[in-house]
Amino acid sequence: METDYEEDDDNVYINEELESGKEQVVVSHAPDQRIVPPLNFCPVERYLYRSGQPSPVNFPFLLNLNLRTIIWLANEEPQDTLLEFCDAHGIQLQFATINPDGGEDDNPWDGLTEHSIISALQTIVNIENYPLLVCCGMGRHRTGTVIGCLRRIMGWNLASVSEEYRRFTGSRGGRILVELLIEAFDTHLVKIDREKAPRWLLSAVK
Fold first, then answer.
1. In a domain, 35, yes or no
2. What sequence ranges are listed for the domain Tyrosine-protein phosphatase (predicted)?
């Protein structure tokens, strides 16, 4: 298979020939903006997303999601750039785990109390807050805890909940205390208004 290289303004573009002999579309110039999702970004359900803390390079990507709400799961406030982004685009930023007594931010469960988990989930089960992004510093343990508790509400078995949580925890793996917290969470504490719940949630809790 032959490959032609074309140089333009110090950028190299590749024009490849397919096996069928038809040319692929040639990219004549780089895009004006880089569309970069946040760390550990992933759709959870329709119009519900999870990630690590977005930075300015991620903002063009987030604009495409038309977010109405961002749930911030951390003891500390997010970066000023994220606060300014939410303010500029009318996005509600919910602080779900601000706990001044949580101590240093070196444990994934610091500040993540039952009350804060319920607060986040009450926002998630209301379609009026969508499209919605759940995030924390790295998008791993705290975000994984809230999403794991949501999966419990949806009736997932614990093996499936743990597998999803561990998928985002990186090389160090999951934390047993997080999984125990998810397992022990009382799903009946989250009140679901069936008139305002997302369709995918109603389908799961029938």
1. no
2. 40-198
Active site (catalytic) residues: 136
Encode pLDDT of 125-139 as tens digits.
999 999 999 999 999
- Express each pLDDT in 30-77 by its tens digit: 566 678 999 999 999 999 999 999 999 999 999 999 999 999 998 888
Q: Global pTM?
A: 0.79
Tell me the two tokens of residue 78: 């997010």
Domains contained in the chain, number: 2
